[in-house]
Write a sequence for this structure.
C-alpha cells in the first residue's frame, strides 16, 4: 500500500514539475519543442495511452515526446536536444537523458514502466531477457554442464521475493509455487552471468569454446540487446522488440522528415502494436495485434517456431531464381522454402480455411511473454497453456478438466474441475477486455484466458486481429459423432493411452524442421573475434542502449570466430519421444554439436569432436511443440510402421554407418584401396559417430544420445512403448502367405482393391475368423 501511495505521489510531482516551469516559456513563443524538427511523426498510440502521455507532457510538447524519450526540447540544436535535461527531472522517476528507444528494459522503469508497473522487472527475469534455458541446453551439449540446473543467464539477477509469483490468480500462484518447489533446477532463485573464455585455457579444455559459441551466436535474440540488425532481424529492444512494428527490410515509412527512409535499422512507423484496441493504419491497411512476423524476428533459431508457424523452413539452395537469375534474398541469414503454415495461422483468403488467421499472442498469454516475477529456467517453466485448455478432450469440456491437465510431470492430478472465471485479475485489464459471456476459460495453471470465452455451446477465441473464431471442442464432436475422419475417432476415443499420455501435437504436428548435425568451428587464431552479446548486454549506456545498437557495428566483441553448417535437413514427420511433462511429444535435433576448435596459435585442438553428456554423446534431440499443427493428423502408419519415428533412425538406421571413416572419391582397386598418391579426403570423418544423426536409440543398446537437457522425465520412447507401438509386421501377417493359395483364396478377391476396399476386406476376414 505504501508503495502505491509513493508511486502516486511521484507521478503527481512528475506531472507538476513537467508542467509548471514551461508555462511562461511557452507564452514567450521562444520554444516549439520536438516537433520543430520531427513535424509529421505520428502519435505513438491512440486513446487512453495518448491522453496519459499528453497529461504528463510540457505545454509546448503537446505530443508528450519527452515523457517517453526524455531529452531537452528547449534546445535549438540536435546534440543539445538529445543530451537530456536532468536538472528539470532530478529524482522524480522521469527521463533524465535522451532515450532513442524508450522500450529498452534497462531504462523502461523511467518510460513504459511509469504506467505499466511491474512489467520491467518481470521481463528482466523472464526467458525473453535471461535465455537461461538456451544457455543450459547448449552448454550441456558441449559437456560443460552435466545436470539440469539452469543457473546461468545473460546477466546476474536474483528473485528477491521467492517462489510465489507476483501476478496471477490465487490458484495460479499456488500451482506455480508448488511446481517451483518440486523443480528447483528449472525455477532458479538467481542466475549468474555466463563468463567469458580465457583463450589460454582452450588447448587443455577445448569444449570451453561452447561458451564462445553461446556468447557470439546463440544469445543475440534476447530483448536486452538490438540483435543482428540484418534483413528479417531488425527490431527494437525491450518492450519495443514486440510492441513497435519493424518491417523485414528495416526501413522507415512514416512522415518524420528527420529519418532517412533509405537506411535500414528503423521502425516501420512510430506506432504501438499491442491488442485489438490498438489499431494501426499504414499503406492503406489497418491492423491490430502483433503480427507473427514480429515474433519471428527472434524465434527463427533453436526450435525455429517462428518460421514454422508461418509455414516456411530454412534450406540451402535459395531457389526458385529471381527474375534476374539470382537467389532469393537472405532472411535471418538463411534461405527458406515454403512447406505449410500452422492451421491456427493459415490465412483464410489464401488457404480457404475459415479457422485460420490467429496470431502468436492469441494463444500465448501475457505471462508466457512477460513472465510472472519468478525466474524460469526453461520454456516449459514459463509457458502456461496447453492445447486442451481450449479444445478439451473427447470425454471432458475444457472447464471440466482439472488444473494441470496436460502437464502432469509424472504426478497425479486433483479430480476437481477447473471451472470458468468470471472476472479478470488486475494485470489483465490493461489489455482489451472482452465480454465474459458464460465465463472465461482457464489455462492449465489457473489463470483466465481473457480472450477465450464460453458462449452457450461454443468456445470463442477473440483474436487480436479483430476476428473471432469458434474452437473445435472435442467433446462436442464426440457427443454429436461429427468426426470428419474415422481414424480420428478411433485414435481419440478407442485408445485411451493416446489422450492420457500424448501431447495433441504428437499427432497433429504434420512436419517439423529437422536440422541434423551442427558442425561448428571456433577459431581463436590471428586475433579473430566477433560480436559478444553477453558483453553487449552488460555494457548498457545511459541512453538505455547497448553498444550493438549502432547499425553494422555489432558492438563489443570477444576472442574467437564461429562458423557453422549442417549435415542435412528434413521436414517430414518427426521422431517421437518423451518431454519434461512426461508425455509423448515430437523431437527435433537440438544442439547436435560436432566441433572443430583452433587455438590462438593456429593449432587444431580437436577436429569433428563429439562431447559427452550424462545420457550419451551430445547430439541432442529436444522435445518440441513444432507449431506446425494440421487439422488432419499424421497417419497411424507414420508412427507405428516407421522406425525413424520410434527413434531407430531413418530406414532403421541403415544409412551413414561409415560416417566415422574418411571417404575418398578417387580411383580405387578391387579391394577399395585408393590408387593415386595425391588423393584427398572428400568427406571428413566424425570419429566418434557410428550411426546416422537421426538415430537416438539402438534396438540392443537402448538410448545412445542425449534427449532433452532440461527436465528429468525427458527422453526417448521407453522400450516397452516402442515394442507396443511397432506394428511393421502387421501387413506381412497376410502378405507373407500370398504363395499359400488355400489361405489366400479365403482372405482375398480378384483384382486391385483401393484402400477403402482393402480395409473392408480385412475387416470381413477378421469377423469371419471370429465367427
Amino acid at each position: 500500500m505504501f508503495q502505491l501511495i509513493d508511486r502516486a505521489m511521484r507521478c503527481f510531482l512528475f506531472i507538476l514539475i513537467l508542467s509548471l516551469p514551461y508555462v511562461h516559456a511557452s507564452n514567450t513563443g521562444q520554444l516549439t519543442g520536438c516537433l520543430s524538427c520531427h513535424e509529421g511523426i505520428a502519435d505513438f498510440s491512440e486513446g487512453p495511452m495518448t491522453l496519459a502521455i499528453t497529461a504528463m507532457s510540457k505545454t509546448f510538447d503537446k505530443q508528450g515526446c519527452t515523457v517517453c524519450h526524455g531529452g531537452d526540447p528547449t534546445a535549438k540544436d540536435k546534440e543539445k536536444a538529445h543530451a537530456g535535461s536532468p536538472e528539470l527531472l532530478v529524482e522524480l522517476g522521469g527521463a533524465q537523458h535522451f532515450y532513442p528507444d524508450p522500450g529498452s528494459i534497462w531504462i523502461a522503469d523511467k518510460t513504459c514502466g511509469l504506467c505499466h508497473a511491474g512489467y520491467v522487472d518481470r521481463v528482466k527475469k523472464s526467458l525473453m531477457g535471461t535465455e537461461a534455458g538456451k544457455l543450459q541446453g547448449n552448454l550441456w551439449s558441449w559437456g560443460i554442464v552435466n545436470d539440469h540446473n539452469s543457473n546461468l543467464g545473460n546477466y546476474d539477477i536474483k528473485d528477491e521475493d521467492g517462489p510465489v509469483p507476483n501476478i496471477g490468480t490465487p490458484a495460479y500462484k499456488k500451482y506455480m509455487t508448488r511446481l517451483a518447489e518440486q523443480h528447483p533446477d528449472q525455477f532458479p532463485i538467481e542466475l549468474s552471468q555466463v563468463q567469458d573464455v580465457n583463450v589460454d585455457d582452450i588447448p587443455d579444455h577445448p569444449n570451453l569454446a561452447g561458451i564462445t559459441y553461446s556468447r557470439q551466436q546463440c544469445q543475440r535474440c534476447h530483448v536486452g540487446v538490438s540483435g543482428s540488425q540484418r534483413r528479417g532481424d531488425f527490431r527494437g529492444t525491450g518492450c519495443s522488440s514486440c510492441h513497435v512494428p519493424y518491417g523485414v527490410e528495416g526501413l522507415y515509412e512514416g512522415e518524420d522528415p528527420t529519418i532517412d527512409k533509405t537506411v535500414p535499422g528503423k521502425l516501420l512507423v512510430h506506432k504501438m502494436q499491442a491488442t485489438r484496441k490498438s489499431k494501426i493504419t499504414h499503406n492503406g491497411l489497418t491492423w491490430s495485434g502483433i503480427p507473427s512476423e514480429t515474433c519471428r524476428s527472434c524465434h527463427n533459431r533453436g526450435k525455429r517456431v517462428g518460421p514454422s508457424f508461418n509455414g516456411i523452413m530454412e534450406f540451402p539452395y535459395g531457389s526458385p531464381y529471381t527474375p534476374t537469375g539470382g537467389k532469393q534474398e537472405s532472411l535471418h541469414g538463411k534461405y527458406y522454402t515454403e512447406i505449410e503454415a500452422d492451421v491456427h495461422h493459415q490465412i483464410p483468403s489464401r488457404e480457404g480455411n475459415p479457422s485460420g488467421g490467429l496470431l502468436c499472442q492469441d494463444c500465448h498469454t501475457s505471462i508466457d511473454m512477460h513472465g510472472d516475477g519468478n525466474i524460469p529456467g526453461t520454456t516449459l517453466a514459463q509457458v502456461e497453456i496447453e492445447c486442451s485448455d481450449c479444445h478439451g478432450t473427447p470425454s471432458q469440456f475444457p472447464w471440466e478438466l482439472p488444473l494441470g491437465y496436460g502437464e502432469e510431470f509424472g504426478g497425479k492430478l486433483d479430480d476437481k474441475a477447473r471451472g470458468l472465471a468470471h472476472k479478470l485479475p488486475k494485470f489483465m485489464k490493461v489489455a482489451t477486455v472482452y465480454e465474459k459471456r458464460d465465463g472465461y476459460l482457464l489455462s492449465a495453471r489457473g489463470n483466465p484466458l481473457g480472450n477465450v470465452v464460453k458462449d452457450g455451446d461454443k468456445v470463442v477465441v477473440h483474436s487480436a486481429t479483430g476476428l473471432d473464431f469458434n474452437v473445435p471442442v472435442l467433446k462436442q464432436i464426440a457427443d454429436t459423432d461429427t468426426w470428419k475422419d474415422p481414424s480420428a475417432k478411433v485414435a481419440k476415443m478407442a485408445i485411451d493411452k493416446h489422450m492420457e499420455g500424448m501431447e495433441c501435437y504428437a499427432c497433429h504436428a504434420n512436419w517439423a524442421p529437422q536440422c541434423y548435425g551442427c558442425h561448428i568451428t571456433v577459431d581463436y587464431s590471428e586475433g579473430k573475434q566477433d560480436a559478444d552479446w553477453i558483453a553487449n548486454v552488460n555494457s548498457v549506456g545511459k541512453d538505455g542502449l547497448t553498444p550493438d545498437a549502432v547499425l553494422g557495428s555489432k558492438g563489443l566483441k570477444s576472442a574467437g570466430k564461429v562458423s557453422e553448417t549442417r549435415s542435412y535437413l528434413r521436414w517430414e514427420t518427426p521422431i517421437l519421444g518423451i518431454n519434461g511433462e512426461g508425455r509423448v511429444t515430437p523431437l527435433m535435433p537440438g544442439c547436435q554439436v560436432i566441433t572443430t576448435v583452433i587455438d590462438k596459435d593456429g593449432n587444431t585442438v580437436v577436429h569433428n569432436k563429439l562431447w559427452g553428456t550424462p545420457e550419451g554423446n551430445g547430439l541432442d534431440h529436444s522435445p518440441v511443440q513444432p507449431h506446425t499443427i494440421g487439422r488432419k493428423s499424421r497417419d497411424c502408419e507414420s508412427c507405428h510402421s516407421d522406425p525413424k519415428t520410434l527413434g531407430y533412425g531413418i530406414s532403421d538406421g541403415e544409412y551413414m554407418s561409415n560416417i566415422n571413416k574418411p571417404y575418398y572419391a578417387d580411383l580405387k582397386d578391387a579391394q577399395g584401396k585408393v590408387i593415386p598418391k595425391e588423393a584427398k579426403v572428400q568427406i571428413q570423418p566424425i570419429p566418434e559417430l557410428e550411426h546416422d544423426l537421426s538415430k537416438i536409440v539402438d534396438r540392443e543398446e537402448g538410448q545412445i544420445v542425449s534427449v532433452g537437457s532440461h527436465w528429468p522425465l525427458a527422453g526417448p520412447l521407453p522400450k516397452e512403448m516402442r515394442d507396443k507401438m511397432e506394428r511393421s509386421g502387421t501387413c506381412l501377417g497376410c502378405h507373407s502367405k500370398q504363395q499359400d493359395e488355400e489361405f489366400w483364396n479365403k482372405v482375398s478377391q480378384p483384382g486391385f482393391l483401393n484402400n477403402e476396399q482393402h480395409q473392408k476386406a480385412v475387416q470381413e476376414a477378421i469377423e469371419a475368423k471370429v465367427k
Summary: Residues 1-31, 86-95, 349-355 have pLDDT under 50 and may be disordered.
